Fold this protein.
Amino acid sequence: MSHLNKPVPAPDPDTKPFWDGCRKHELLIQECDACGRFHFPPAGRCPHCGATGSRWVKASGKGTVYSWIVVVHPVPKEVYAGEVPYVVALVDLEEGVRMATNIVGCDPHAVTANMPVEVSFQDVADDLTLPCFRPAKPSA
Ligand SMILES: [Zn+2]
C-alpha cells in the first residue's frame, strides 16, 4: 500500500477537509452557518442559500442507493482489468446529500435501488482513503 497507478483525487482548499476526514475514517459533509442545511460535494458557497460560511460535521455514514452502474469493461485495461466488475453508484445519505461512490462487499449484480448501505473506508494508499459503501447490516 504505497502508490496507485490510477487516477486519484487531488484535494484543493475546498475538498481537503473531506479527504482528511476520510483518512481518519470519518465521513464529513458541510453544514451551512446561515441556513443550517447540509451540502456535498465540498464547496465554498452553500448551494441552497449562497452563504459562504459553513462547518464540517460528521455524517452518519448511512444512506440508500439512488442509482448505479456495473462497470464490466476495464478502461484503461492495464489499470482496471483485475477490478471489473465493479459498481459506481450515487448514494443518498440520511443527511440529504448525494455522493458518487463505489459499492463494495456484495455481488455487483445484487445492487438494487433504495438498497440500505453504510460507509466503508478503504485505505488504498499511504495518504489516500476512499469512502465506499457496503450493504448495511440489518438493524437488530
Ligand atoms: Zn445555506
Notes: Residues 32, 34-35, 37, 46, 48-49, 51 surround zinc ion (CB under 6 Å). The longest helix spans residues 16-23. Residues 12-58 form one domain.
